[in-house]
What we know:
The protein has helices at residues 9-14, 21-28, 71-84, 97-102, 114-125, and strands at 44-47, 59-63, 90-96, 133-140, 147-153. The chain is an alpha/beta fold. The protein has one domain. A five-stranded mixed sheet has the order 1-2-3-4-5. The N and C termini lie close together (11 Å). The model has no long low-confidence stretch (mean pLDDT 83).
Amino acid sequence: MFSNEEHLHMIxxxxxxxxxxxxxxxxxxxxxxxxxxxxxxxxxxxxxxDLGYDCCNHWLIIDLxxxxxxxxxxxxxxQEAIRNCDNLRMxxxxxxxxxxxxxxxxxxxxxxxxxxxSYIVGINSMRNVGxxxxxxxxxxxRGPTKEIIHHNYx
Length: 154
């Protein structure tokens, strides 16, 4: 199962990633994305910082490399956030290829996961307020060959 074709236009409309070059730089230099946040700008929820709170904004950014929970707890909280936050429209999940693969979000080489794609389609079908766009940013490689592999699900 793949993304619902009726919702594909939402991918480009929702993503704010390209507006913040600091995010890509932080991923490539193994720094927490939190360093890119200031006091002004668009409100976002950021895991790990907001994980224990009922943060409910338009955009949820998840930094798996700095999130110290197991996959079972992650997916439980992930579903809860999608189910309970009507404002949520965009989720960006970032991490190393090892961490993303461990959580089942990508394959070991950063490839997209049909299982995760099916999971997102299933969750979106249960939402009454419209689908959430989920994008993954997987850091692959080491040193000068390091790159970010992007996938989108809706």
